[in-house]
Amino acid sequence: MSPFDGLPPVPAIPYDDDTVPLLDSAVLHRLYEDLDNDEGVWKVFIRDFVALLPSRLESLRLAMTTGDSAGAMAAVLSLKTSSQMVGAERLADLALELERLIRQKAFDGDPSVVLPRLAAGCLVQIKQCAHQTRFFLELHL
Q1: Contacts of residue 24, Cβ cutoff 8 Å, sequence gap at least 6
Q2: Which domains does the chain have, with CATH numbers?
Q3: How far apart are alpha carbons 122 and 136 in whole angstroms?
Q4: 3-state secondary structure at position 13
Q5: Distances in Å between the alpha carbon of 80 and those of 5, 65, 77?
Q6: Which pLDDT does position 17 carry in this prediction?
Q7: What is the pLDDT of residue 12?
Q8: What pLDDT does 7 receive?
């Protein structure tokens, strides 16, 4: 029996022009299999992601609002890759888009001006998505 049995599918809530699933259950299942079907280890991995999510968001917010382009890039990459690992597709997609914007705008302009503007336009949506992601991941625990 896997931790996915009996759970309702996670709804795909539209954002912008696309419909990216909040969670990809296939990725969660593959992670479970990669961990030799050890539900205990799998749950620890998911719990660690959930526990570290607030600090990842805070690191991103702090770097963006203070104009720290290197810190912003490190924080957004951490958020993106960790989200991909647990199947948090929408959060990873938002982080990927922010990464693209940081690369495009922060290194061409003054990061102390550009990054706070990007933060104002992106961080609320990322934070909301992170809260939804956390809620649905916790259903699997």
Answers
A1: 87, 89
A2: 25-139 (1.20.120)
A3: 22
A4: coil
A5: 27, 19, 5
A6: 47
A7: 37
A8: 46
